[in-house]
Amino acid sequence: xxxxxxxxxxxxxxxxxxxxxxxxxxxxxxxxxxxxxxxxxxxxxxxxxxxxxxxxxxxxxxxxxxxxxxxxxxxxxxxxxxxxxxxxxxxxxxxxxxxxxxxxxxxxxxxxxxxxxxxxxxxxxxxxxxxxxxxxxxxxxxxxxxxxxxxxxxxxxxxxxxxxxxxxxxxxxxxxxxxxxxxxxxxxxxxxxxxxxxxxxxxxxxxxxxxxxxxxxxxxxxxxxxxxxxxxxxxxxxxxxxxxxxxxxxxxxxxxxxxxxxxxxxxxxxxxxxxxxxxxxxxxxxxxxxxxxxxxxxxxxxxxxxxxxxxxxxxxxxxxxxxxxxxxxxxxxxxxxxxxxxxxxxxxxxxxxxxxxxxxxxxxxxxxxxxxxxxxxxxxxxxxxxxxxxxxxxxxxxxxxxxxxxxxxxxxxxxxxxxxxxxxxxxxxxxxxxxxxxx
Length: 439
Fold this sequence. Notes:
It contains 9 helices and 29 strands. The chain has helices at 7-12, 17-25, 71-74, 188-196, 235-245, 260-270, 290-295, 339-357, 408-413; strands spanning 14-15, 34-37, 45-46, 50-51, 61-62, 66-69, 83-91, 105-109, 121-124, 153-156, 166-167, 178-180, 201-205, 209-215, 219-220, 231-232, 249-256, 276-280, 306-312, 314-315, 319-325, 330-335, 367-372, 378-379, 385-393, 396-399, 416-420, 426-427, 432-437. The strands form 8 sheets. A 7-stranded mixed β-sheet has the order 1-19-21-22-18-14-17, sandwiched between helices. The protein has a 5-stranded mixed β-sheet with strand order 9-6-8-7-10. A 5-stranded mixed barrel has the order 23-26-25-27-29.
């Protein structure tokens, strides 16, 4: 059932939380894939499997700064009876023309440098005298300061087994291996792997662009002076931050006054950069609830457009609106204006839309069961699913603040939502309840 399919009955009946969410998600599809440069793909979802074109590492290389040697030449070596080897030169990282290590020889080698032909192991420089003729050293001198270190003799004080301190070709991944699977969220480690196997781009579903605007002539920007009857606009900041936290590119629009024409024009201006629009405020039944006035008739319902406003069996967040607007049928979710109502509504309805647009399979916040710790029973209105703020720890949850939808300070202390089902009007301390984890 789409938002435009039942414009009359949708507004007349009381919808459940689950029905409203199901109806929203039925209209949302993941964004089309695009090819992005690696750093631009951060946070995006990979569309295709990625296979390894070249083994990692692509050659045997040293895991230590030291000397490449033959095992037989250092067998039985000790500080009392060190093995004396002739140093034939340096092998640095990136070296192409490699020296060949023969009997009684060693090549000074740096971490990451290719293991030269003839060598079977690497002895760390700390196991040697560093070519100085004394006891064990702690490191190498820079070649520019001591070029003679690449020649002469080195004394090795410990034996080494075959392949000691050698990173084998393909020991990380082999050519043809599956590097990343479709559906992977690309983070810094995934970017590192893609770069390491020579991929400069990735085919991903882009992060959705979410435009957030709040409505209300009483709203003032932070850092400005408040006049009588005015309050600071917190919703647009909170929801833009929540959109970014969900993985979107969030754009915040300054508060729009209670004027339907102004709001409609602002929304039309913002559509060019929106994959999803979110408004807050103006969706109830008051004479100045301009979101309903501005958007109720927007869109061509024959083509699936339009915004529908509903009442939900939930607290907070009873008034809600959703639909699509503009020539591209951009999804729009209209949330209530009370701060807690708007934030709870975002977590329940907007976040799943963002995650769906990204192409993620798991679009919801994690949920768990917890034992209620409270001084008294929690009350809840009959027939409403209530979402109370709480703090979760070690299998228990404690309410934070009251049920008021304006209590921002309590919301800032919460890391969970306590869910009270529609049929429960009272929940006693010690009862196991469902909890939505917010962080």
